Amino acid sequence: AAWKAFLNVSQSIIAIAFGAWAYESLGGTHGTPLESNLVAFFGLAVAFFTTNMISVSIFFVIRNKNTFLSVLRQVVGPGGINIVYGLLASPIALIAAFLYDKLYVGGILLIILPIFLIRYSYLSKIQLQQSNQDLLKVLVKTIETRDPYTSGHSLRVSRLARFIALELGLSARRVEMIETAALLHDIGKIDSVYAEIIRKRDRLTDEEHRVIKTHAVKGAELLQSLTSLPEEVIKGVRHHHERYDGKGYPDGLAGKEIPISARIIMLCDSIDAMLSDRPYRAALSVDQVAEEIQRCAGSQFDPDIVAVVLRGETLEKAAAQIREASLPDVVGV
């Protein structure tokens, strides 16, 4: 889109301008040996990456209506790791300038070819990850076709979990793992033993309750056979029915013993269920859901995560997801 190109160009111009100002302020000069301007070059790199990250954060604050600090923490990464990565990569530009100074175009080719190979490898990895994600979504959708009342539930829970994880200021890697775990939290229900129970419209018997409770362990065991999934994803699936007071299942974990991925999924799963119609009741309103999760904070849910949800517009976004899913498809003429 044109506006994205405009924003990217504007952001780059601003970052370059601040970098140039920092370079000259630290005594950097033009036409002198590169080794005499190393301090100025380092200042240029710090100013460039810092300005760039602040600009990106402001854009996402405006676009997604998140708080500036939560977005900045996400962009900068834990302990400022993304700035560190940028600074570690910045000598590539210095090396390119040195090679051009000594070898002209041949020097540039020496550094561009390896960079293109690295980029190709990175893009291939991203495409493979996207393909795997699409495959998992299809698998989850197949499970949910057994019950029209839960259609789209896992995808909504994953989006909600991602939003909450971002609000908590977790790292990009961790947010991604929580989102994946949330998408797969009911994957154990693919086993045929649950088919009749899922379709049942009456109240479950004690035996059926016992059987359905095994889906979390079943899902974790299934995912353990997929070596590409991180351990945190598997733990999030296994423990997403653990309660903060230790009365959940399958292992009776309590408080912070429960992985944060599972604590987030537990809350998101409940929010989506309460905001959705069920065979035995109509959907609750946003205010009713807010009262319920506040009442259960410290018993069923992590009170810190509940506080984050109630402080923002999380419930409104969750309700909007369900409304969008219920709209009929419009066929063009």
Description of the molecule:
The chain has two domains: 2-103, no CATH class; 132-326, Hypothetical protein af1432, CATH 1.10.3210.10. 68% of the residues lie in helices and 0% in strands. The chain has 333 residues and is mainly α. It has helices spanning 2-25, 38-64, 68-76, 81-89, 91-103, 105-144, 153-167, 172-183, 195-199, 206-212, 215-224, 231-238, 260-275, 286-295, 303-311, 314-326.
How are the SSEs placed, and which strands pair?
Layout: H1 2-25, H2 38-64, H3 68-76, H4 81-89, H5 91-103, H6 105-144, H7 153-167, H8 172-183, H9 195-199, H10 206-212, H11 215-224, H12 231-238, H13 260-275, H14 286-295, H15 303-311, H16 314-326
Helix pairs in contact: 1-2, 2-3, 5-6, 7-8, 7-13, 7-16, 8-12, 8-13, 11-12, 12-13
| Mean of all residue-level pLDDT scores | 81
> What percentage of amino acids are in beta strands?
under 5%
What assembly state would you assign to the polypeptide chains in this entry? single chain
Query: Mind telling me the CATH class of the largest domain?
Result: Mainly Alpha
